[in-house]
Write a structure and sequence with these properties.
It is a single chain. By secondary structure, this protein is an all-alpha fold. The protein contains 10 helices and 2 strands; from the N terminus they run αααααββααααα. A two-stranded antiparallel sheet has the order 1-2. The termini are far apart.
Length: 217
């Protein structure tokens, strides 16, 4: 890690990188200090324990997920179904650590499996993302872009569960579990929720072309 980087951020991103490659329990404080180039006193100035550093690593992953990862699609002006398709299409999500350029697979799902405190932190961090998806879907229904039979809260949670499953499959080296057929089914289902009748109703009429004599062509 570059020594110019803020020490706290360097420690967090080093921990995130090592947790991704070695696992939470197989990464020691000594490993993080060696890789980051930070002194033990600097680490304990910012974090009281490895567990607290783990919480910060989860927070950092979700920050990067919003800014550069799959969740960044939620904040565009595209059709809400297109945004949701792009979020799921970009999974399994790999985030780029700055300024080193290291790519790491999202590790929060893996960390949540091994430690109850980390699991609660992941749930806390995931809740705003689920809420953002739900708000996007509610607005899409209100704007006539999505059929009104959709339960936005339920669909937001289903999308989160699908995303979690894709991430876990990748962490376990079983990305082929989420086959092309499964992705096609998800895509077809989400596309079926578009309010095509509303789109048709809003479509402007075709211009009339007149022949000589006033007859419509």
């Amino acid at each position: 890690m570059p020594r110019r980087q803020d020490p706290r951020k360097r420690l967090v991103q080093t921990a995130l990188k090592l947790f991704a490659s070695r696992g939470y329990y197989h990464t020691s404080i000594a490993d993080i200090l060696r890789e980051s180039g930070c002194k033990r006193g600097v680490l304990y100035y910012h974090f009281s324990s490895k567990e607290e550093l783990g919480y910060a690593a989860i927070d950092e992953q979700f920050r990067l997920l919003r800014e550069q990862g799959a969740a960044s699609h939620l904040y565009t002006n595209e059709h809400p179904i297109d945004r949701l398709l792009k979020v799921l299409g970009d999974l399994p999500n790999r985030i780029r650590l700055t300024p080193t350029g290291d790519l790491v697979l999202g590790v929060s799902a893996n960390m949540a499996c091994v430690h109850p405190g980390l699991r609660r932190r992941v749930q806390t961090s995931l809740a705003p993302l689920i809420g953002e998806i739900e708000r996007m879907l509610r607005k899409g229904i209100a704007d006539g872009q999505i059929v009104d039979s959709v339960d936005p809260r339920q669909l937001a949670h289903v999308a989160a569960i699908i995303g979690h499953g894709i991430q876990m499959a990748a962490l376990l080296g079983q990305e082929d579990v989420v086959s092309e057929d499964a992705r096609r089914w998800i895509k077809d289902y989400l596309n079926s929720l578009r309010n095509r009748q509303k789109q048709w109703a809003r479509r402007p009429p075709s211009p009339k072309v007149y022949k000589k004599g006033g007859q419509v062509q």
